[in-house]
Amino acid sequence: MNAHMRNISFENMDVVIATAPISISPTSVYDKLVTRGRGGYCFEQNTLLLTALTALSFPPPTPLLCRVRWGKSDGQTTPFTHMCLRVEVGGGEYLADVGFAGVNSMDPIDLDPSSPPQPKPEGVFRTRLQSKYRYLEVQDRGDPTVYRALYCWAEETPCEEQDLEQSNWFSCTYPGARFTGQFFAARIAKDRDERHHILNDEYVVREMGGEVTTKV
């Protein structure tokens, strides 16, 4: 995950240009992200990770469709527009996500319900079950007693290939979807712990600790 996120950018240029719906077939994703050295968004990034883990003989990872909660109020509903993976390693289950452009761990997150909050270079993460949803949360940097939700997924609802196709199609074609009207790009530096972000005409560099070092 660490190597993936330091070498493949997050970007949605093809979504904004809207030449055609984004293909998330493994062949198309490999050609774009590896052969041509482009970036992509969550459906592309995590499809590539799923393909790589399968080729490395991991147990087949389980795709998860998520509702993004970052920056949303408790009463604000959101559609299923984010993809990540549940991966089995050594008898345990872990969350693996190389396609969330904001606050995100470059290491897997232990999904054991009894696991304590997990410190990572990017922040302190935990998962929490509420009703039928499992939430990934990060500790607020200003108040360690507060955790902020990144996204959630339906714990017991299976995610089929056609669900991913439909959610990807919505995310890259619907006029009101987040990625169709704004340009995003993000990359983690190869040689230092910095995140570089572009949102439309704004460029921001953040240290892993969250401090903004450059803003243009």
The CATH top-level class label: Alpha Beta
Spatial order of the strands in the main sheet?
A: 5-4-3-2-9-8-7-6
Q: Please bin the fraction of helical residues.
A: 10-25%
Count of discrete structural domains: 1
Characterise this structure.
By secondary structure, the protein is an alpha+beta fold. It has a single domain, classed as Arylamine N-acetyltransferase fold, CATH 3.30.2140.20. The chain is built from five helices and 13 strands. It has helices spanning 2-7, 13-17, 26-35, 42-55, 161-173, and strands at 10-11, 62-68, 80-89, 92-96, 109-110, 118-120, 123-130, 133-139, 147-154, 184-188, 194-199, 202-207, 212-215. The protein has an eight-stranded antiparallel β-sheet. Strands 1-10-11-12-13 form a five-stranded antiparallel β-sheet. The longest helix has 14 residues, at 42-55.
Write the layout of secondary structure elements.
Elements: H1 2-7, E1 10-11, H2 13-17, H3 26-35, H4 42-55, E2 62-68, E3 80-89, E4 92-96, E5 109-110, E6 118-120, E7 123-130, E8 133-139, E9 147-154, H5 161-173, E10 184-188, E11 194-199, E12 202-207, E13 212-215
Antiparallel strand pairs: 1-10, 2-3, 2-9, 3-4, 4-5, 6-7, 7-8, 8-9, 10-11, 11-12, 12-13
Helix pairs in contact: 3-4
